[in-house]
Recover the amino acids of this structure.
C-alpha cells in the first residue's frame, strides 16, 4: 500500500545528486589528469582517484541521510464499520512505520480488539509475544535501516452517538451523523451490495 508507506510518498530531490555526479565526472577525468600532469607525478592517480570517489560517496550518502532522515515517520488509515442506529463500530486501522535506522519496539493489543505486525521481509518483525498482562504484547519488534513496517489493528470503538440512515421507499434519502466524528468517503452496504 504505497499511500500508507511514508517513505514511498516522500519525494527527495534528485538534483543535488545529479549535480554532484556531473562534478565527479569532471573531477575524476580532466581535472584529475591535468593536476597529475602538472605535478609530473603519474603514480598519484592511485591516490587521487580513490580519494575523489570516497569524498563523492560521502557527500551522496550525507544527502541520502538528510533526505530520508534517521527518525521515524508514520502514516495511518482508519476505517470504521457500523450499523445504522448503533453507537459502536468496528475500527480497522493500518499504520505504516518508516524507520530511518534500526529500531526495536513493542506493540500492545488494544483493550477491546487485536493488533498484529505485518512483515515486510521474510523472517523479520516479531521476536516474541508476551501474554503476562492479560493482553498480547509483541515484544522486540525489529525494524531495519530505512525500512517500512505495517501494523494492523482491529478494535471495537464507541462512536459517542450513532449514524442513522433515513430511507424514502427503498432508496436512501438522508445520512444523519449524530457522532462527533467527521465522515469521509462513506460507503453504504445493503443486502444487495455497496451503494457508494
Amino acid at each position: 500500500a504505497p499511500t500508507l508507506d511514508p517513505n514511498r510518498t516522500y519525494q527527495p530531490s534528485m538534483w543535488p545528486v545529479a549535480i554532484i555526479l556531473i562534478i565527479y565526472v569532471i573531477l575524476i577525468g580532466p581535472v584529475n589528469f591535468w593536476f597529475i600532469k602538472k605535478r609530473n607525478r603519474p603514480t598519484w592517480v592511485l591516490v587521487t582517484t580513490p580519494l575523489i570517489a570516497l569524498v563523492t560517496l560521502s557527500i551522496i550518502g550525507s544527502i541520502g541521510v538528510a533526505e530520508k532522515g534517521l527518525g521515524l515517520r508514520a502514516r495511518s488509515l482508519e476505517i470504521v464499520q457500523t450499523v445504522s442506529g448503533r453507537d459502536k463500530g468496528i475500527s480497522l486501522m493500518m499504520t505504516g512505520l518508516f524507520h530511518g535506522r534500526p529500531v526495536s519496539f513493542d506493540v500492545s493489543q488494544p483493550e477491546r480488539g487485536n493488533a498484529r505486525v505485518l512483515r515486510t521481509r521474510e523472517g523479520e518483525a516479531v521476536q516474541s509475544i508476551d501474554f503476562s498482562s492479560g493482553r498480547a504484547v509483541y515484544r522486540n519488534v525489529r525494524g531495519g535501516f530505512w525500512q517500512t513496517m505495517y501494523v494492523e489493528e482491529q478494535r471495537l470503538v464507541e462512536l459517542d452517538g450513532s449514524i442513522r440512515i433515513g430511507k424514502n421507499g427503498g432508496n436512501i434519502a438522508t445520512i444523519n451523523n449524530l457522532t462527533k466524528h467527521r465522515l469521509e468517503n462513506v460507503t453504504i452496504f445493503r443486502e444487495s451490495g455497496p451503494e457508494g
Remarks:
- The longest strand covers residues 88-99.
